[in-house]
Design a protein that fits this description.
With 427 residues, the chain is mainly α.
Amino acid sequence: MNAAARRIQRIYLTLTLGNTLAASFIWGVNTLFLLDAGLSNFEAFAANAFFTVGMVIFEVPTGVVADGWGRRVSFLLGTVTLAGSTYLYYLLWQFSAPFVLWAVVSVLLGLSFTFFSGAVEAWLVDALRYSGYDGGLEGVFGRGQMVSGVAMLAGSVAGGVIAQATDLGVPFLVRVGVLLAMFAVAFGLMHDVGFTPERSTHPLRATRAVLSASIENGLKIPPVRYVMLAAPFSAGVGIYVFYALQPFLLELFGDPRAYSIAGLAAAIVAGAEVVGGWLAPYVRRLFRKRTSVLILSGSISAALLLVLGFTRVFWVALVLLTVWAVIDSAATPVRQAYVNDMIPSKQRATVLSFDSLMGSSGGVVVQPVLGRTADLYGYPASLALAGIFQSLAVPFLLASRRQGAPADRANASTEDPDKGPAEESLP
């Protein structure tokens, strides 16, 4: 990696650090915050589902912003809208607002995150290629995930401690302050490199064109299509499990007001992101094909969730949660590299946003279903059902593997020219 590429990587890591730190202040207490506002389990996870509805609705239009106005513009808009919608969430909690208002503001939160999804990743890949870097992307994405994990660890623990020392609303105000600071940082550091926006005076026409390009360069490419079709199951389950673990662990711990324990759940996931990001390049070397990593990760993660659903011991649950999070995190950079190596630069942000849309669409359905299951049968049953849902992603990953895409073998480093040492038995 030359000096220009290292600078791009440093900016990417800085943006990732600040953005994740800001967002994560509430992640450890969000479900408890919603329940404290008077929402039921079903309503709390329905509010989260409306968040993903917002992501589904706005992914393509904000993809137009990223590809038509620039990835920098998209990032800056994301910081402003996320700060504003987070403050509205705080106000709803203050006034014990009815569910319909929670649903509306949750959609706005979803809009905020769509400005980030695809844009930052596309900015990074195009800027690295422009600077002359032609190496594997797993290492770069892995470092980004490690930085994200450190930020999430600090933010989620701090959020839980702040909530316990003050109240559940203060972490939301802290998030607003950090986001406003990140706007200033991104304004000074982030500039589109290796990419020229194609601005259109007709937003609706541009949206249709971008949607068409997303389908043409995403769903119509078989190996990309199958990875995207797996996303509703894996991503939808991941969102639910992350937030359900807060009340689940408090239930096992036996103290409903031990908010620092809820923060611990998010902190473990954050620590797992650091470990998983560090492991990703090494895991990649064990397999000739990237899909082997994804298939094994999905299968093991599903099995762990099933076991977690039958666990009644707090410390055992923490161990299972940690293993599940590490395995899932180690596969994420591999998936990112696999998808990025199959899509063109010109529509990169749009296709990545469409991929995020597919994952969010699963969350729209999965979260209310699992939330209702938690209301009727408890959190353990909902986690076991989550494991079943996640297992449904594996057949699609197998289908992607069978397409034989060159990206599946790209940047492999194994002794056997045909197979890695750990994938002899995979189809």
